[in-house]
Amino acid sequence: MAMATGTLTIDLNAVAANWRSLDSATSAQTAAVVKADGYGLGAAEMATTLARAGAQSFFVATAEEGALVRTALGPIPDIFVFSGHMAGDTAAIRDLKLTPLLNSIEQMTRHFEALQGYRFGIQLDTGMNRLGLEPAEWDAARSIILPQNPALVMSHLACADEPDHEMNAAQLKTFRAMTDGIDAPRSLAATGGILLGPAYHFDLTRPGVGLYGGLPFDAAQPVVSLSLPVIQIRTLHPGETVGYGGSWTAPHAARIATVSGGYADGLLRAIGNGGLLFHQGRPCAIAGRVSMDLIGVDVTHLPSAPEVLDILGPDQTIDDLAEAGGTIGYEILTSLGARYKRDYLEGAA
């Protein structure tokens, strides 16, 4: 049956293959980051697929996300929470066996007073200035923290997607200065850090975007494809315009397909007037602005009227679309809207 909304197809075999590929690139344990609803693809589905592939540790942004993933995975896997132990998280951390990554003296105090003896990890700031203990704070607190056996001591690289950036080596040096000689497992590398090589791998890696087909993991198998149904096709006379603001003018007689999808579905307004959709591999340019629920596409050159046009798939990756919109693949993925029909492909992997 033809749908009125787009169909987002998510290849679970590709997710598993991408995890195995990144896992085989290191001798460390390989975790999986499933925050932001599994980067927009469904936290429960992503976590279940990755656990089946071999992941035993998972990372989420908040305790609320951790609750969803715990329900999907059952009691065994480790679930680390990047935002740490926030006020109001205590019951969830205790009851769901979540491991907060404490990132301030205030959070340490809260955790050790409320849940003495419960698992925790520590975040260190090695130069990103986002979350984590500064070197001076760590120096003051490490003699209290380390005897309590943190499950993980981690930091995060700011520029790992640029292999030659001087900040990578500087952060590595700081991380080693802060942690060499400790017994706790260490983690520095997300997807980009894995690709920087063994010096960055430590005990645990935590790939995220690479699992879902995004750069900087350019060997990733593509995970998502997105097809938008054509609602109507109309013929324009030369000089007629399309969409809000009349920003596209037909240079000659033209056929415009209006497809179901828009910025409310995560298709960024910035891809208007020139972004591409595809019909059986043939590019078709967006005509006019992307509106909330609809996009006009020039299909004058197609031999027959298309029923659907593809905006993500073999012809256009999340990073291609991101480039057209002046952003990054992460934003495309995590913005993919709730209105799409989601098809999860599973087969013999």
Please name the defining characteristics of this protein.
349 residues; alpha/beta; TIM Barrel; Lyase, Ornithine Decarboxylase, Chain A, domain 1; 2 domains; 7-stranded parallel β-sheet; 6-stranded mixed β-sheet; elongated
Can you give a write-up of this model?
- By secondary structure, the protein is of the alpha/beta class.
- Strand 5 (78-81), helix 5 and strand 6 (99-102) form a beta-alpha-beta unit.
- The protein starts with 6 loop residues before the first strand and ends with a strand.
- It is elongated and about 75 Å long.
- Helix 1 (12-24) crosses helix 3 (43-53) and helix 10 crosses helix 11 (329-335).
- Strands 3-4-5-6-7-8-9 form a 7-stranded parallel β-sheet. Strands 1, 11, 14, 17, 18 and 19 form a 6-stranded mixed β-sheet that branches. The chain has a two-stranded parallel sheet with strand order 2-10.
- The chain is built from 11 helices and 19 strands.
Short description:
This protein has 349 residues and is an alpha/beta fold. It is 29% helix and 22% strand. The strands form five sheets. A seven-stranded parallel beta sheet has the order 3-4-5-6-7-8-9. Strands 1, 11, 14, 17, 18 and 19 form a six-stranded mixed beta sheet that branches. Strands 2-10 form a two-stranded parallel ribbon.
